[in-house]
Design a protein that fits this description.
heteropentamer; A alpha/beta (about 400); B alpha/beta (about 280); C mainly alpha (about 280); A: about 400 residues; alpha/beta; Rossmann fold; CBS-domain; 2 domains; 6-stranded mixed β-sheet; 4-stranded antiparallel β-sheet; B: about 280 residues; 5-stranded antiparallel β-sheet; 12 helices; about 20% strand; binds adenosine-5'-triphosphate; binds magnesium ion
Chain lengths: ~400, ~280, ~280, ~400, ~280
């Protein structure tokens, strides 16, 4: 399968034809892959397991790139090839344009220290170190002086809500706490790229949301690039700039959350996103419909009346020449104005229109929309009217009907 | 170590070898005697000491010293190959601490006379000379298998063997007999010769080499039937004292063994234990 | 084919070896240096032990024990140490005990200093492992008697060849257990170290050795025990100490006396064992 | 905190005053607990960690009982005390009325074999056994003959989608696959009670949904009792009959999903359930509003007209005396019927009313509701009308407004 | 206080021990049974080895190796075995080798049969562990020389006391490593066993021993090596075999001859080592 490779100045990680086959008869397996055999067929024939099959993708600086897929589809393997914890069978990984496979020991070590931090699926904490020492591990490896690294590690522990546990040992902690130690260890490192393998899987909803916010902050403030494996669709949609979906070692689709949701590449992806909570993903812009408007600076009551009749509606939005929202017109008022022979709309415009911004998540709108019978007007930062929100469209979007994309 | 200088006849010996006599197993009779000698000759007061080690370590040290013509004083005894292989001489023992000579006794277990009278008789008759034993020792030392060397000896000395077996009738049914011995070359020789003779008489003989203590203990506890390697009165004095009530001493099988302090012959000025004090 | 083989004359291996040993004597300079080196360690230990009064020695041992075991039960061990050491004193074996201790500590020290790196190296390289394993088998099973005698030519008689023989015999458990311990480090911990950019050295020091500690300590402990088990053999080439006492008693056919001297060795063994084991338990 | 303990014939597990304190100075810690000190205070003062603090709850036969809470709040500890993997510091656990703390070794072993199966948070697979042998482990312990247990284990592996991997070793599997092996091991055992500690945490959405369905089937068909720790609110709400929420070792609330959603016990629970996707939880019954009806067997057009006027509505639902839905009346038709002097409603009833069942999840209704402007009628199995669904109410429910409970 | 202590006369320990040994002789019936038991194992092994032609023996060893190492590299080892055994044959040590093998296999068998349960027991009970540890120290460090002489009274001379001494000296690593291995089993695996209702026995057999296998095998391997290291000492009370050859050569100050006999022991050690280690690697 071919995926577009965007190559521009902002590219942080570029992956080309990355392949990993586990087991013994690797050459034979590679041959079979080329001939289009599937992973189970190859496993049966050679005993070799296809971990990742010729993956191509690009991750930009400062984005959160989420990898999803069935268990065993090659997510961890892909991630671990990014820092060469697993030696690829074939293909390239370029970080900032450098092919890490071609690096000597020293360079790859430097890259691992400064550019790449990792959170492990299985935590991988050192059992004979305290929580604090575990969190400071990456810094210690970098040779940072003890006081400094411990104060940094302490801050990282604060970040993940584990202050007070610094002197305990991993086996005295609950699963989720252990996971957060692993998280703190990665965060303390302050690397440019964070590789996170199901880093939040053992967290409760509250901690999870906090950690997600933390990631978003990191991305925004520090411009970190984050590669994140998750099984939680809502999480992926919430934090991901791009989402990559894998199946049996292959990439099935890469796209923005909206693209994935509204244009799933195939049945697999469609099934995959079935249970998703769309209210967390979609914004007002996604569900708004075109508003019928009149220009207060040019149009008069007669035009307004005709437009209402043509569109079989009883109200009309009023904008000015800059398309700024002015208010709303009532059919009765328009009729009265015409009867009174008025030429201007100004007197009859009602300005108490409920408005919302383009990027307000649907979840935040639900309450308002459910209690207000007037449609909400969707405006941008300069108060220009872009559309309106009606209940049917909201429900439709939540039900998975098509929505506006790239608005 | 090997960095030490060669023997200098013109200087006192003591400083040259650090006032040390190289000994063998700490518990051996010769060691007890040497300890006594150090006192009797007043050597102990002059910082002389006895370094215990083992027979092998002592002979090894000796070999090395002789190769480098360095001075050395060791505890020595004969018959032993060290006296055939190396140019050694015993130091005179005017105060007779080591005794004139040693004798080698045959010791059997209690009840052997009743159980195996024929074997008992052979063992009782067994007697030979340092010269005879040396021929077997030499053969073994030159690489011959001890059993074969013994067979050769028995073949060549048929007359003497006939004396040992005088009045002894052939036994039937291959009764078992166990001899134990100390793995010194003299004892290897004598035990193999006796075993060969006993085999001719019809016994199924097992011989087992071991340390002196188990040799005595085995005969005392009847785990073995006999041994022909009891150096007395000095060398095995302690063991003899311990076990004499549990074993039967058949008397001397060889005379003329000797123990004492020995030095290489090139140490011309050292001829008596008294000379060590110089 | 086998009949054919039987006609091959016995290989003159023994002769070759004798020549090899003779050839080795030309390196007497090197052996001299080694002898002096080991000798100076021995002397240093012995000087310290000779300096410390007996009561202070006992107090120091007990204090060390208490310090190492402070979060565990230690009363039984303290009482054992007190009684055991007093017994050794009472039996008149004090000096012998310190001599044996010197021998064992020197040998263990060398076994650890050589053995741990060797074990690490073997854990890291299959080639090294393929060489080290049979070498360890060799060192443990080639009877000490065999090399002790030629060793006299190189190291003389006394403590030094005793130490050499003890090191040869006692080192293998440390090497093997170090290798085993490092092999047993879970893959994900190694990966964590690598992912954070650890050098091989850091990975070793910060992850593998701490994790393998228990197993390595078991190896060191075994090495110490084996070094102690060598003291009688060491005494055969003149190393002084409790071994000599045993050897002497055995020579005199004095089972009781031998046992008493042996008991002093055992007491020393138990104290050393407990102290090394409690080194292990503090995390 | 006091929680109601329902004691009836159906009770499977009853827990009373269950407490666990980790560490050394336990008596002191217990004292402090009694005096109302908090977990952090006790940790600071004694070094002892309060795992669970006097928990009381009851689990009924055949229900799925979900435990949720912050990481470190004592969920795993509670679960592990149910099969006495952790010895309680105080309190009782009664299984089928028997106090497991008082049992001798043989009895507790029997209970563990026959009544309790467990899925571990950290998988706990035996590394030197194949996947199949791991799955058969519980049965092997019971002494089951090899062929039989392996065929059972094979079936369990099928169930979790791991056929084909039977002969691999755990370290050759991905995280999610390992978790499913642990799942298969527990399922193969066919025990009455399943204790599942974050058993689905490493699963992708598709496998996860399959496994949830599997659990629901098990519960329904085999009447298994399932105690399930989860961090996924949607999962908890989807499969849980009751949900227990813990915090710092204490139970904060126990209730049905609807109760938890609509009547959170405190701010903590409210925050906890903030991000939940209500469309998966709520059913038509939860969001329907009362329908204005007329009885076709008794009422005439005039009554219908008045009722419309009174309620300011333009349509009215028609039922018969059994409250069975007959159809809908239009205001215009009613007016026409009155004008025509008709006494009967039969001719003017429109019967093409969109209907839905009481227990249809909102998620399944969204699509229909968004495209149909007529409200849906909610009927039960005997076609009786219970209410209608209007868009505003749907949106309101999704937004977290109060809904009907226990309908 | 210490001065006071110095006035206590030396304890008559040696005397007590002599009396104890004397007292023990009344149990000669028991020791007779034990001697016969061990003797029959020895005889069985030796009978088999005497029966098998040399070429078949070599073929069998190589076949076993191939079978155990079939998924690994085995060529080097096979060649080593072939050449090593042919060398032993060529040197005329075949019978001695089988005698030593008999001694070592019997001792190892006993060490394993006694040591593994003891190690397990020690891992499970702190009390047992507190008793077993010093006992192991005792067994490893009480010099064999000390008990070999009295042992003659109980076990006679020859193979049997050799086996007894070897077992005493060689067992501790098996016990210790078994205990260590079981201690190192991760808590969650034990919990899994318990949660599924395993009896202690099942937990041991199905979880702990398989997991600890590597460590236990290392212990067994060490025990075998130590048993091999005892053959010379065993020969001092009449156990036949390669040890006797070494003993003789050393007595003759024949370094080369001793080394050659020692080499035969080492070859045997390497083969045994490799075979036990490959037992370990099949999962
Ligand atoms: N073996 C132990 N020793 C000491 N403290 C422990 C131990 N096990 C758990 N704890 C403590 O008990 C508390 C509850 O732990 P528990 O494992 O039950 O949490 P949990 O609710 O399962 O969390 P998670 O969701 O992260 O798995 C935590 O504070 C933890 O630190
Ligand atoms: N060390 C290994 N040896 C053999 N096969 C392996 C190994 N590691 C992974 N695999 C195989 O590679 C495939 C991909 O595994 P990977 O761990 O990348 O999956 P994943 O997508 O991360 O799954 P999960 O969501 O369950 O963690 C799986 O089929 C797995 O069995
Ligand atoms: Mg994974
Ligand atoms: Mg938990």
């Amino acid at each position: 399968m071919q995926h577009k490779i965007e190559s521009d100045a902002e590219t942080k990680i570029e992956v080309r034809g990355l392949t990993k086959i586990f087991g013994k008869r690797i050459n034979r397996a590679k041959e079979m892959l080329k001939n289009g055999k599937t992973k189970p067929e190859i496993l049966k024939a050679t005993g070799a397991t296809v971990g990742v099959d010729r993956a191509d993708f690009t991750i930009k600086t400062g984005e959160i790139f989420v990898i999803m897929g069935l268990s065993g589809s090659g997510k961890s393997t892909t991630l671990r090839m990014l820092n060469r914890l697993i030696e690829p069978t074939a293909g390239q990984v370029l970080i900032d344009g450098d092919d890490i496979a071609k690096m000597d020991k020293q360079s790859i070590r430097d890259i691992r220290r400064k550019k790449l931090s990792m959170v492990f699926q299985g935590f991988a904490l050192l059992p004979n170190r305290t929580v604090l020492q575990n969190a400071a591990f990456g810094l210690e490896i970098q040779g940072m002086e003890k006081n400094l690294r411990e104060s940094k590690a302490d801050k990282a522990l604060d970040l993940v809500g584990l202050n007070g546990f610094a002197d305990q040992y991993p086996d005295q902690l609950s699963g989720g706490m252990q996971q957060r130690v692993g998280l703190a260890r990665a965060l303390a490192n302050d690397a440019e790229i964070l590789l996170m393998d199901e880093a939040f899987s053992a967290l409760d909803p509250l901690n999870r949301r906090d950690m997600q916010d933390e990631l978003l902050d990191l991305q925004e403030d520090m411009h970190k690039t984050i590669v994140f494996i998750s099984h939680d669709l809502n999480e992926a949609l919430r934090i991901g700039d791009h989402i990559m979906i894998m199946k049996d070692g292959e990439i099935v689709q890469i796209g923005t959350p909206e693209e994935i949701l509204s244009q799933p590449a195939d049945d697999y992806v469609e099934k995959f996103i079935e249970g998703v909570d769309r209210s967390q993903v979609y914004t007002a812009a996604n569900v708004m419909i075109r508003a019928n408007t009149v220009n207060i600076d040019k149009d008069g009551p007669r035009l307004a009346a005709r437009r209402m009749r043509d569109n079989e509606i009883s109200s009309l939005y009023v904008v000015n020449t800059q398309r700024k929202l002015v208010g709303i017109l009532d059919a009765d008022d328009v009729r009265a104005a015409i009867d009174a022979g008025k030429k201007d709309l100004k007197d009859i415009v009602k300005t108490d229109v409920p408005t919302t911004k383009m990027d307000t998540p649907l979840a935040d709108l639900l309450d308002a929309v459910s209690t207000t019978s007037v449609p909400y007007a969707v405006i941008d930062d300069r108060d220009r009217l872009h559309g309106i929100i009606i209940r049917g469209a909201v429900l439709g979007a939540l039900a998975g009907q098509e929505v506006n994309v790239n608005v | 170590s090997s960095t030490q200088p060669k023997y200098n006849a013109n200087k006192p010996l003591g400083p040259q070898i650090n006032y040390t006599i190289t000994g063998i197993d700490a518990g051996a009779g010769i060691m007890t005697s040497t300890d006594k000698a150090l006192k009797v000759y007043g050597l102990a007061d002059k910082n002389w000491q006895l370094q215990p080690s083992s027979t092998a370590a002592m002979t090894s040290t000796l070999k090395k010293a002789i190769a480098d013509k360095r001075p050395i004083v060791v505890t020595g005894w004969t018959p032993h190959w060290m006296f055939t292989k190396f140019p050694l001489k015993f130091l005179k023992d005017p105060k007779n601490v080591y005794g004139k000579t040693e004798q080698i006794h045959t010791i059997v277990r209690k009840g052997l006379k009743q159980d195996d009278p024929q074997a008992y008789q052979v063992l009782d008759h067994f007697h030979w000379t340092p010269k005879e034993i040396s021929s077997v020792m030499l053969a073994v030392n030159n690489g011959q298998d001890p059993a074969n060397a013994a067979k050769d000896f028995v073949k060549k000395h048929a007359k003497q063997v006939a004396e040992w077996t005088k009045g002894v009738s052939h036994v039937s049914g291959h009764p078992k007999l166990t001899l134990t011995y100390i793995a010194w070359d003299s004892e290897i020789a004598s035990t193999n010769v006796v075993a060969t003779v006993l085999r001719q008489v019809g016994y199924k003989v097992t011989i087992r080499a071991m340390e002196p203590q188990p040799v005595w203990a085995s005969v005392a506890t009847k785990a073995a039937d006999a041994q022909v390697s009891a150096w007395l009165p000095k060398t095995a004095a302690k063991l003899y004292a311990d076990y004499k009530n549990q074993v039967v001493d058949l008397g001397v099988n060889m005379d003329g063994a000797r123990v004492g302090l020995a030095v290489p012959k090139y140490m011309k000025n050292i001829n008596s234990i008294e000379d060590l004090k110089k | 084919m086998f009949n054919l083989f039987m006609n091959i004359p016995t290989l003159p291996l023994a002769h070759w070896i004798d020549s090899f040993v003779a050839w080795l004597t030309q390196f007497s300079g090197f052996f001299g240096v080694l002898t002096n080196f080991i000798g100076s360690i021995v002397n240093a230990f012995q000087a310290v032990f000779d300096l410390i009064p007996i009561w202070l020695f006992i107090v120091l041992i007990m204090a060390l024990t208490w310090y190492l075991k402070r979060d565990q039960k230690y009363r039984g061990l303290l009482i054992f140490e007190l009684l055991g050491l007093l017994l050794i004193w009472n039996l008149g074996f004090w000096r012998d005990m310190t001599q044996t201790l010197t021998l064992v500590l020197t040998a263990s020290l060398l076994a650890i200093v050589i053995g741990i790196p060797l074990g690490i190296w073997a854990a890291e390289s299959k080639t090294v492992s393929a060489i080290v394993k049979p070498l360890m088998d060799f060192m443990q099973t080639m009877p000490a008697f065999v090399y002790l005698i030629p060793a006299v030519a190189f190291f003389g008689i006394g403590m030094v060849p005793g130490v050499v023989a003890s090191v040869i015999f006692a080192m293998p458990p440390t090497v093997r257990m170090t290798q085993l311990g490092i092999d047993q480090v879970p893959a994900d911990l190694n990966e964590a170290a690598i992912a954070f950019g650890a050098t091989s050295w850091q990975q070793l020091i910060k992850v593998q050795l701490p994790f393998a500690r228990g197993t390595i300590m078991a190896g060191i402990n075994q090495s110490m025990m084996l070094a102690l088990s060598m003291v009688v053999i060491a005494s055969m080439i003149g190393a002084m100490g409790l071994g000599t006492k045993v050897y002497f008693a055995v020579g005199r056919n004095d089972a009781g006396g031998g046992f008493v001297a042996g008991l002093a060795i055992v007491i020393l063994a138990i104290i050393l064992d407990r102290i090394t084991q409690s080194l292990n338990r503090t995390r």
